[in-house]
Amino acid sequence: AGSPVGHPTRRVLPNKPMQSFMSHTRAVWLMVVVTLLWSMAGVVTRHLEAARSFEVTFWRSFFNVLALAIGLTALRGPAVWRAIVRAPKAVWISGACWCVQFTAFMLALTLTSVANVLITMALGPLITALFVRVALGQRLPLRTWGAIVVAGIGIGWMYGQQLSAGVSIVGTAVAIGVPIAAAINFTVLQHVGFAADRTAAAPAQDMLPAVLIGAALSALVVLPLAYPFQASAHDLGLLALLGSVQLAIPCLLMVMLARVLPAPEVSLLALLEVVFGVTWAWLGAGEEPSLSTLIGGLLVLGALVVNELLGWR
Fold it and tell me: Is the pLDDT of residue 32 over 80?
């Protein structure tokens, strides 16, 4: 039937466990769950009592490390720690990208509105499409380019309202680091997947430890700036929720889904985080979206639905 992005050389190999039991449809729905979990960050952050800025980032990354250490040890056994020490370059590059994503996202949320952060992150599909085209030579079907354009129009419509209301330039500059790092990360994950597909006898590189590396680097980088700690017990409970449920679980799922879904499609589906996140902030934190935001969100959703329906056909 061909690949979901029209890449003529990509094929599903029976000896790849992830691809053998997971269909494209199931992977898409799991990616929707991933974005739903990711989107909780903004509304939960708005309910913190005392923790601010770098401290928020530190505790979320710290609890992410704790959850990942437990989860990966359960999945891989003690060998996972030896694998991290001997990890190849691709794992460390991916880990550095996760570090930027984890750190920049939470810092941006403390500097500007949830909607502005999420809308800035929505540049991801276009950046990812360009990266995989240049780095991997991967061609995208017309339907995916069309979805990126329509979704971009929707994002632009939403962003225009934010500009008219006044936004933080610093917050936007920090937030732009998230889609750039994510695009590099998706491209690396896709490259590792293609390499494994081309060499049937070689085992696929385990990229799950990269999430743990990224979380640990993020916690270490912001630790000096997070002191003195001011988080209350209430804050620590919410940040533990963010580190485990909102971050560790969906990030591990996303790494596994990158073995099934092409990078541009993963990035395009990740736009649902914008829609879910704005909705959570509206319902749970009173950040009511404007009419422009609602119209833009409908354009994003419509582009994603049409792209996936055409892909399934």
Answer: yes
